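Researcher: We're teaching a course module on how sequence relates to structure. For the next exercise, students receive a sequence and then see the predicted structure as tokens, so they can try to spot secondary structure elements on their own. Here is the exercise chain.
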Amino acid sequence: MDQATAYQLMLIGAQAFLDEQARLQAIRQAQVPVPVPVPVPVPAPVPAQGGPARGRPFDDAGEDLETPQRPRRERRQRRWWVRAWLGADRRLQYGHFDNLLVELSLEDSQAFTNYVRLPIEVFNELLHLVTPLIEKQFTNFREPISPGIRLATTLRHYATGEKYNSLPFYYRVSKSSLCNWVPEVSRAIVAVLKDQVITPPTTPQQWRAISDEFYQKWNVPHACGAIDGKHIRIRKPPRSGSTYHNYKGYFSIVLMALVDAQYRFIWVDTGGEGSMSDAQIYNSSELSELLSAGTIGLPPAVPLPRSTNNKKVPYFLLGDDAFALRPYLMKPYGTRWLTVEERIANYRISRGRRVVENAFGILAQRFQLLLSTILQKPDTVRDIINAMVCIHNLLRLRNPVMNVTMVDHEDEHHNLVGGEWRNGAGLAGLNQHGLGNNNGTNAAKDQRDYLKTYFNGPGAVNWQNGMI
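Model: And here is the predicted structure for the students to work with:
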């Protein structure tokens, strides 16, 4: 600061001092008392619960010297405990379960069956079985949703693929409640039905009974079931990467199943992920381990019916090119450069293997949820699929005589007539090329060649030459 500036500031300060002295002198002469300022009390800061926050200044007494934090906003009070249109009285008055289903059960049993995919008597039987597992206790707040509504909404979800956003409007239930009980009801269905309707054979007598049905219906001796797998489309699970991404370009889990001659599932595996190859899924399954170890209980090898020699042939399953050729798993020949005898053998093997394709087709047409993208978590999807399979088998046991137009059948000339399930969308099969080792063993190839000779010799049927 230069001298001129300092001199000017000194003059300003001196003039201010003189002005203040003159003001005080005037006050004394007028004898007016000088007002004394009153200190304004400052409220002490209230420390937060659990002690002051870290990093704040403290005085000697340890008090927080900063302004206290803003108190938490009180939670907004809910406008209603239950929306009026979801109340028990409205549900009883307008909901589908207490009105439409009752009306259908009294006036149109076929429409009732179409609505929930179960006849009235089977629905009541299933409701009786699952009620102890899904029934909730009464409380002082409100009446719980009845087991009948829980079961009916779950079955309707299976049957149509209706989303959780639309089902509440039909049954007058909340979306959150629906999301909670669909997995619960699915697990309950599996718990009460699985041991009754899905019973894998364990003894040679049980396997031989299935083999006899295959021979009587499909003219394939020693066949103990047909195996195949299908992709079930799901929404990409969070943080799953490409684990569930399949060769078709979408996310899925794999349903692999073994089916008997009556379109019943006798073994089911839903643990496969979409990115897994056919060899990975099958080789990691319990069925493959039991077959490889020879501990699954298949009957001992015996000669084929009407065979002209005493060559013993093992019992086997029927598969497609997605599976490796083994003595216990037969599949058709490749599709290129086939002889007439090989084409006939392929026709006979494929004729028996069609039962698994029909079983999947019937399952998907009965439960349309399988034809859409299932939005639940993978574990919940597996519970839903297992529940559908159990219901499918239950219906096959209760009503073994199926409408012939539902499945593939043959006319009087043994020409294939596709079932009604083929008219709609179907489930995607496994990738049959370039996934895993499908090379057959020499013993399996020799066995298939012997079956070829048998199908073109003593085991021939009179219409097979016109089918190739």
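Model: If you want an answer key for the exercise: The mean pLDDT is 83. Strands lie at 223-233, 252-259, 265-273, 316-318, 329-330, 409-410, 416-417, 428-429.
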